[in-house]
Amino acid sequence: MPNEERNDLNDLKPSRQGSSNAAAAALFVQDLAVYYPAGRGKFVHAVDGVSFRLHSGETLGLVGESGCGKTTLGRAILGLAPVTRGTILFEGRDISTFKGEALKEHRRHIQTVFQDPYGSLDPLMTIEQILSEPLKIHHLCSGRKERSEKIAALLHSVGLDPELAKRYPHEFSGGQRQRIGIARALSLDPRVIVCDEPVSALDVSIQAQVVNLLMDIQEAQGISYLFISHDLAVVQHICHRIAVMYLGRIVEQGSTQDIHDQPLHPYTKALLDAVPSLEKSSGARKIFLSGEIPSPVDPPAGCHFHPRCPFATERCRREAPVPTEVSPGHTVTCHLCSPEKSRSL
Ligand code: SF4
């Protein structure tokens, strides 16, 4: 197995604070819902009315517990999950209208990096064959020579020696396989990459390398990332903005600084309080989650979070809160949060 330089999370590049400068929306998602039939006339409400923008050259983090719908949301954007309701605009165009060549072209521009670098590469194909496949399907190279040059450039861009192209996936470490997965996503010159837990299957000592690589690629190529993760520490580091999901809905979104310094939704606070920290406690009351996330087949009435929320009132049990912008770009979905009461919790 080729050697891989090891480092740890202390080797991460400086984290990103505040929003990116980019203003144009690469993706605009409005009231998106994905329901799956669950039998007896019931449905799994996997995604239930989600709205957000992903700006060009920006990284938006999507966080929440397992089963909150973040992966289904990513799959809907990739065209891999059926959309029940709502709109997805890619660079201003409704992706539901794409058919034939337009759909193929769209798929070229939105790529993905999967969680599992072991399972996402065909073990019977060499790296050269894996990277050739999308180039052939989309007719991006005029011949074998141009394809080989493109593959060498791709491997070089993700920090791998082009000489390794003739090897098979099992000859690489986990971090190197994820680099190959990133090279495959980059092969079609995408404008958006959905990164679905791209480092969570990797050894902690390798995570920083992959995170730094993604940040370098974004700075060089201006790609937008939808970065799906349950790891708030990594998300806070790489993302310009963060959206917090609970049971199919976004409960809070804002700049990374807003979410880190002034989380307002009780669920966001609970997620942050669960992150181990060596920093001295501020003395503020901590929120610890108890119980399981309720079933998305029969979500609780009113605020979906009320069975686990220490601040729940009668109103929370019967009336669903609506997203409220408490400060520019910082939106919270909670009855207790408004621009006037944003510090009340
Ligand atoms: Fe808690 Fe009520 Fe706010 Fe929901 S609306 S998060 S139950 S306080």
Radius of gyration, taken over Cα atoms and rounded to an integer in Å: 21 Å
Helix segment count? 10
Whole-number mean pLDDT:
87
Which residues form runs of ≥5 with pLDDT under 50? 1-10, 17-23
Extended strand count: 12
Small molecules bound in the structure, each named once: iron/sulfur cluster
Overall structural class, as computed from helix and strand content, comes to alpha/beta
Distance between the termini: 52 Å
SSE order, as H and E?
EEEHEEHEHHHEHEHEEHHHEE
Give, in spatial order, the strands making up the sheet with the most strands. Answer: 6-7-8-3-9-10-12-11
Give helix % range: 25-40%
Give the gist of this structure:
The chain is 29% helix and 22% strand. The protein is of the alpha/beta class. The protein has a domain at 264-342.
Q: How would you sum up this structure, described in words?
A:
By secondary structure, this protein is of the alpha/beta class. The protein has a domain at 264-342. Helices cover 29% and strands 22% of the residues. The protein is built from 10 helices and 12 strands. The strands form 2 sheets. The protein has an 8-stranded mixed beta sheet, with helices on both faces. Strands 2-1-4-5 form a 4-stranded antiparallel beta sheet. Helix 5 packs parallel to helix 6. The longest helix is centred in the middle third of the chain and has 18 residues, at 204-221. It binds iron/sulfur cluster.
